[in-house]
TrEMBL record:
This is Helix-hairpin-helix DNA-binding motif class 1 domain-containing protein. InterPro entries: Competence_ComEA_HhH (IPR004509), Endo/Exo/Phosphatase_dom_1 (IPR051675), Hlx-hairpin-Hlx_DNA-bd_motif (IPR003583), RuvA_2-like (IPR010994), Soluble_ligand-bd (IPR019554). GO terms for molecular function: DNA binding. Residues 38-63 have a biased composition (Basic and acidic residues). Residues 173-192, 203-222 form the Helix-hairpin-helix DNA-binding motif class domain. It comes from [Ruminococcus] lactaris CC59_002D. Pfam families: HHH_3 (PF12836), SLBB (PF10531). One of its GO terms (cellular component) is type II protein secretion system complex. PANTHER family: ENDONUCLEASE/EXONUCLEASE/PHOSPHATASE FAMILY DOMAIN-CONTAINING PROTEIN 1, ENDONUCLEASE_EXONUCLEASE_PHOSPHATASE FAMILY DOMAIN-CONTAINING PROTEIN 1. The lineage of its organism: Bacteria, Bacillati, Bacillota, Clostridia, Lachnospirales. NCBIfam families: competence protein ComEA helix-hairpin-helix repeat region. GO terms for biological process: DNA repair; protein secretion by the type II secretion system. Residues 35-73 are annotated as: Disordered.
Amino acid sequence: MKNGWKRWIRGWSLIVILLSVLSVSGCSVSEEDGLQEVTEKVSQEPEVSQKDSGKSEDQEKPGQTEGDTDTGSKKSAEKKIWVYVCGAVNAPGVYELKEDARLYEAIELAGGVNQEAAPEVLNQARVLADGERIYVPKQDEAESYSLQDQGLESNAGTADTRGKININTAGKEELMTLPGIGEAKAEKILRYREEHGAFRSIEDVMQIEGIKEGVFNKIKEDITI
């Protein structure tokens, strides 16, 4: 009888121990599964937020790039011209201006006119052309100047004559700015005009002593009548 009770108690003890082991193992598995699920959710959320933030940044960039492109295109659209200012100015030289610049702006860049200048004979409101040569005459040259002869009236000049020296009206100082024309040759040109009248073609300048084909080839692109 005692042996029977012992066997019965020992059997139930084994059952209780087995149930305890099974319950602990089940809790461990459940906890691990729960932790795994939470870990997966947490790891997935930042990826989604990064993608979303990346999209928002990409959406902002086109607007910024477009603004920068507009600014760059405006700067590149601003065309420039270069002109040579000489004569009775304080700082003769080549100057850069905007495309629709006026004559007075070029003179200002050249330091303005000096005390010998006669700026009143020039149309200072005239729009300039690229590569133009601007000569500001002296007071003793003013009588030989006229806006019509120099092609300086607004919209009256042409691309072929604008910036060239008119050998029928230019003074000595202006003639001396031509390549190969010194003081002696410039005085001979003035004397020829007094004795024979105006030149009828630019080739007539070769009638001047000392101005032959070699000198003419140097100045023919810079003179007009």
